[in-house]
Amino acid sequence: MKNNSSQQPKLIVEEVASYTFNKETGRKLEQFSKDDLIEKLLDIKSRGWIRNARPGNAGGVGNTLEDLLGIQENNLPIPNAAEWELKCQRRLTSSLVTLFHMEPSPRAFRFVPNILLPKYGWPHKNAGSLYQPSERSFRQTISGVQFSDRGFKIDVRRDLHKVVVTFDHQVIAEKHKVWKAQVEQTIGLSELDPQPYWGFDDLAHKAGTKLPNVFFVQANSTRLNDVEHFHYDKFFVLKGFRFEGLLDGIEQGYVFVDFDARTGHNHGTKFRFKLDRLPTLYSEVQEF
Fold first, then answer.
1. Residue 121: how many CA atoms within 13 Å on its side-chain side?
2. Helix 200-210 and helix 243-252: axis angle, to 10°?
3. How confident is the model at residue 218 (pLDDT cuts 50, 70, 90)?
4. Is the bond leading into 194 cis (omega within 30 degrees of zero)?
5. Residue 90: CB partners within 8 Å, gap ≥ 6?
6. Shortest CA distance to 124 belongs to which of 134, 115, 114, 116?
7. Rounded distance, CA 110 to CA 194, Å?
């Protein structure tokens, strides 16, 4: 299972368990009920330490769980069923996962490729080798709690119903003084004008459609006989996405905006978060 949440496996859960067939393989696929899945996860929890089925794979913790649940192909395309997403995490990890992609407004400006990259970007680390000598980069993971070392921050502006990107040259780190001088010469060191933003309504719609109900499983890991094992010892059933929880996450520093662009390609602007805070984004939380 990869860290990117958009690539997480999806489970289809209904009130009553049923079956369907994969038309390509002819295999019977089980359609879990919610209670069935809870029962299966409780059984896995009771087994204690379970050998990593995919050693050497960074996503082994999720792949092993998929195998234990009998999930095939990461997606069960069963029509007319409520969709649940399965997320799995090693304990004690600080890695971020992607909630969704969303470019800032005003959209007509195409802010990242037209403004942030050419005017605030810097030479790509592989410029002149892997890429052309002129290749530039704008990669920033931006917090709502503190400015980045290049002077960028996101702010929740409840008065304007927006999440905005702000810039302050006074907090740019000394190690970026050459870049700072280039920005001053290119566009100046004043606040971004206009400021990139995400309107609350657009953001709530995007998040609501990308964050369905979730079974969130956590696992401890250890090595037994030099082989990694997992204990899936806690899981949550999460329902009812809370937009206010997303805004709280930005203000409290566990939801971030991640820009990842270079001259040749914009990899997209992502909202990312610390996975262990996932329950805070939902109104109904059951812990097992």
1. 25
2. 110
3. very high
4. yes
5. 61, 218, 219, 220, 221, 230
6. 134
7. 12
Distance CA 223, CA 3 (A): 22
Q: What is the mean pLDDT of the chain?
A: 85
Cβ-based neighbours of 279, under 8 Å, separated by 6 or more: 216, 236, 238, 285, 287
pLDDT (tens digit per residue) in 5-37: 333 434 433 333 333 334 444 444 556 677 888
DSSP designation for 106? P
Per DSSP, the three-state class of 221 is strand
The two three-digit tokens of residue 59, written as one number:
């996503």
Tokens of 278: 């996932």
Tokens of 256: 């971030």
DSSP 121: -
pLDDT in tens, 226-245: 999 999 999 999 999 999 99
The dihedrals phi and psi of 192, each to the nearest 5 degrees, come to -55, 135
Task: Read off the pLDDT of each residue in 32-45 and give the average, rounded to a whole number.
Answer: 88
CA distance 233 to 228: 16
Q: In what order do the strands lie in the sheet with 197-199?
A: 152-157, 162-167, 197-199
Q: How far apart are CA 123 and CA 131, in angstroms?
A: 11
